[in-house]
Amino acid sequence: MFMVGLYIHIPYCVRKCKYCDFNSYASATVPDAYIDALTAELKTLGALHDCAFDTMFIGGGTPSLLTMCQAKRLFVGIHTYLHISGDAETTMECNPGTVNGEKLRAYAGLGINRLSLGMQSFQDALLKRIGRIHTADDFISAYDAARNAGFTNINVDLMHGLPGQTQQDYLQDIRRLLVYRPEHISAYSLILEEHTPLFDEAQSHALTLPHADAVADMQDAGAALLAASGYAQYEVSNYAQNGYCCRHNINYWQNGMYVGIGAGAHSAWRLQSGRTAQWTRWENPLNPVAYMQMAGAPLISRPISYIGFYEEAFETVMLGLRMKKGVDLAAFKLRFHQSPQALYPHAVAALAARGWLVIDQTHMHFSGAGFDMQNQALLQFMDAHAF
Ligand code: SF4
């Protein structure tokens, strides 16, 4: 059973965090013209009309900068031009510094049934150091307001490997978070991205980060604490209580179809091309101004990349192996008319012989050792094809 997802990008943040290279721009408000552009783009998605979307994810940037009126206009556009399943998982990312009870109640009233709160740490000094606009108290207020507004499915983002952070600090953050029992926790390590203030500080030796081995140890210790507390790791950075894995992201890791609207949003879709349906990808202009100028252009006029059979198969393996459960063998065979063992005999045999890859009755997945060596292991699959 394949899912279909909708992603909506809101590319504005009150202020850029010092580590952030996402497609977001400093602005305390979302221009109304951006909502007009999203609505215009929704209108162009005629080719996708006859499917129902199972998941919707409003990400950013800071989607919680949307006023109640803007959010309402956006949802009118979504429901006018697309068919959203009645039981769709509908997530909105929220920065704790930008929400209050009234706003969260209004979001819930629109059908948003999952919130993702970017907390990152309980330590105010660390939050300040990485340029977050909120404090730990702001997170607690936002979390309580979300529960009071009726949200029963909440993700919280946590970070490790932050400047000066110790394993004890990180575990203390997790323990404090566990008191609140969010349904889902995303735990990311800090990645220094070029052209960010933290990267520049590191280049000029003004930044002390934990050693890579210490970061790996933090991750392992965090995963163990989360597992012992009822949160199963189901993907590299994601942990959930039973029944609360993020359906939208699972569709992405299954290399499923999704359409992204908004500045810089990506789409992956099987488009009809003559008598065959071909796997395609396309991407909107990054810059919101450029995006707003093109948002009403028909889908067919976009630069669409047609993805070949082997590339699609490799993407499916690469993304699927990010999940602990791995690649669904029946779905793979249905899609590619052969098993991963038949398509990648040498890679599968070599990785299985090393004890890195396991093929069970239903899935192909990494072992614990293989999971830790993902990049190296994936090279074996990549080497099987010359793209
Ligand atoms: S709130 Fe998120 S998207 Fe915005 S600057 Fe910070 S990390 Fe980037």
Write the layout of secondary structure elements.
Blueprint: E1 4-10, E2 12-13, E3 25-26, H1 32-44, E4 52-60, H2 68-81, E5 83-94, H3 101-109, E6 114-120, H4 124-129, H5 136-148, E7 154-160, H6 167-178, E8 184-189, H7 197-203, H8 212-228, E9 232-235, E10 238-240, H9 247-253, E11 257-261, E12 266-273, E13 276-283, H10 288-294, E14 305-306, H11 309-320, E15 327-328, H12 329-336, H13 340-343, H14 345-353, E16 357-359, E17 363-366, H15 368-372, H16 374-383
Parallel strand pairs: 1-4, 1-11, 2-3, 4-5, 5-6, 6-7, 7-8
Antiparallel strand pairs: 8-10, 9-10, 12-13, 13-14, 15-17, 16-17
The structure holds iron/sulfur cluster.
Can you tell me the residue ranges where pLDDT is under 50 for at least 5 consecutive residues? none
Number of domains: 2
Distance from N terminus to C terminus (CA atoms, Å) equals 29 Å
Structural class by SSE content: alpha/beta
CATH architecture of the largest domain: Alpha-Beta Barrel
Please estimate the helix content: 25-40%
Radius of gyration: 21 Å
Question: CATH superfamily assignment of the largest domain?
Answer: Aldolase class I
Strand content: 15-25%
Count of DSSP strands: 17
Largest sheet: 9 strands, mixed
Number of helices: 16
